[in-house]
Amino acid sequence: MRILHCADLHIDSPLRGLSRYEGFPADEVRGATRRAVRNLVRYAVDPANRIDVVTVGGDVFDGSWESADSGLWWNQQLGDLAEAGIEVFVVHGNHDADSKITARITPPAGVHVFGSDAPTTVEATRCNLVVHGQSYARTAVHDDLGSGYPAAVPGSFNMGLLHTSLDGRPGHAPYAPCTAADLALKGYEIWGLGHIHQRDDRIEVGGSRFVFPGNTQGRSIRETGAKGATVITVDDRGSGLSVEFVPFDVVRWTLARVDIGPLDSLDAVVHEVERRVREEGVDGHTIAVRVELVGAGRLHDELGDSLGRLETQLRATVSTLGGVSAGLERVIDTTTPVSGVGADSEAERVLRDYVRRAVEDPAVLDELVDVLRPAAQRLRPYCDRLLEEEWPGAIDSPEVVREHLDAALDLLLARLRGA
Questions:
Q1: Which of 92, 205, 373, 406 is an S-S bond match for 135, by CB 3.0 to 4.6 Å?
Q2: DSSP string across 234-256
Q3: What average pLDDT score do residues 371-391 get?
Q4: 3-state secondary structure (DSSP) of residue 347
Q5: What is residue 14's predicted lDDT score, i.e. its pLDDT?
């Protein structure tokens, strides 16, 4: 038996800010989340891959979209899976609960979407598999949903589907919190999880395996590296299993940190970035690269006057590399003069510490959101115009604020340094 487990598809979510940059492959960016899902469906229906079941761990959609087009397109993908004889099991997560699309969708035959009232159990019809799951009823779920799941069904391979932060992960809201040890007491062979966008399939507790497949398409520089789903292969005895990551992403985010210490010219910076992008682009993905200039060196002073020119040069170079589809997101300069290594001002240290705590501590993040809410309310009359410029739609929500903290810190540090 082979199960393809995915989560956090975020269909039609924008890749933050990329289309505004000149020279970036706009067509690749615009449909990236859909194309990643389409890659997954093509893989699943290919007989050579022998997929029996597809499971989805939540956040199919991306918040409160009102257009039915996303839902219709998703139903077409589900229909393709069902037509190929593949059963599909879906739980909805926090973004789905916020979506007006979710309630309007009637899935095709062969697709089971778990309800939100209580955990339920469904037997697969084509293999010895039992799936247990529960969807979110609302956007923020702080209850331990996993505690209500039933015990394993004897004689079957049991899989739990749950959208959860588990015991907590930096950068993610603590939704449906629980522990792997408690979930393992249910006796399931495997748990297919969602919500955490970083892949983690190495958790094993008490005979249970836990799989976070990560999201299928990275949406910002906070989500670097290959993105896709996990194939779970179960042997004929229904006991031994293995997991394999399969990439499905279209645009791959890369952070290129360039130490200016050994470099003697801005041209050397360009050559180093070009080398990094070529290395990342060998498998045909479109590369979205952010360049972070770090370290101490004599180029620091030159960058102060030439950073804009360097960014223009890098943008042109990256977007015209032969054999590589790539674009530059932006350039960040965190370099220091040779004599100033580690000499952050007190204000800079306070800012860095506050942002670090806001990313890791939900209470600090909520405090920051409360501070930003009045400004968000004043901007609300301009919401349509801001969205056209790819500003986040709800800048007073914890998830959006957390996603933009790095960029805000860069801007504030530049202001402090008089840039």
A1: 92
A2: E-TTSS-EEEEEEE--SEEEEEE
A3: 60
A4: helix
A5: 77
CB 194 within 8 A of CB 91: yes
CA 232, CA 373: separation in Å to the nearest integer? 43
Q: Largest Cα–Cα distance of the chain, in whole Å?
A: 70
In one-letter notation, the amino acid at residue 230 is T
| pLDDT score for 416 | 66
CB count within 10 Å of CB 53 equals: 22
What architecture does CATH give domain 2-247?
4-Layer Sandwich (3.60)
Average pLDDT over residues 86-103: 84
What is the model's pLDDT at position 280? Answer: 87
Kindly list the strands in the beta sheet with 241-247, ordered across the sheet, starting from the edge strand earlier in the chain: 111-113, 87-90, 53-56, 2-6, 228-234, 241-247
Helix (H, G, I), strand (E, B) or coil at 17: coil
**For the chain, how far is it from start to end, CA to CA, in angstroms?**
58
C-alpha 371/C-alpha 408 separation (Å) is 15
pLDDT tens-digit map of 319-334:
888 888 898 988 999 8
Domain boundaries, the chain: 2-247, 251-340, 346-416
Dihedral over alpha carbons 363, 368, 370, 372 (to 10 degrees) = -160
69: how many CB neighbours lie within 10 A of its CB? 11
